[in-house]
């Protein structure tokens, strides 16, 4: 099988597995929400996103909390576009 095809299939399987998990690692949270590592570090350091460090090293996030912080529900806001009345950007959610 072609290497590129195998990598694409592996990526799809990883995404399916992440979709079923309730607690995500730092990298999984970045992939799932679509935000950068540096921005997630800023959110964690400022306490704007709930997280846990059970062993004092790795960060873990609840999937529903991470999505709630990144894309809070607001009435009349369109996902993925700048809302002119509110003036905030809502990142598109991954399926």
Write the layout of secondary structure elements.
Layout: H1 3-20, E1 23-25, H2 26-33, H3 37-45, E2 60-62, H4 63-70
Describe the structure.
- Strands 1-2 form a two-stranded antiparallel sheet.
- The protein has 95 residues and is mainly alpha-helical.
- The protein is built from four helices and two strands, in the order H-E-H-H-E-H.
- It has a domain at 22-70: Multidrug-efflux Transporter Regulator, Chain: A, Domain 2 (Orthogonal Bundle), CATH 1.10.1660.10.
Please report the first level of CATH classification, the CATH class of the domain at 22-70. Answer: Mainly Alpha
The gross shape turns out to be elongated
Number of strands: 2
- Order of strands, main sheet, comes to 1-2
How many individual helices? Answer: 4
Q: Helix/strand-derived class?
A: mainly alpha
Low-pLDDT stretches are 76-89
Range of helix content: 40-55%
Portion of residues in beta strands equals: 5-15%
CATH topology of the domain at 22-70: the name is Multidrug-efflux Transporter Regulator, Chain: A, Domain 2
Provide the succession of SSEs: HEHHEH
Query: Taking Cα atoms only, what radius of gyration do you get, to the nearest Å?
Result: 15 Å
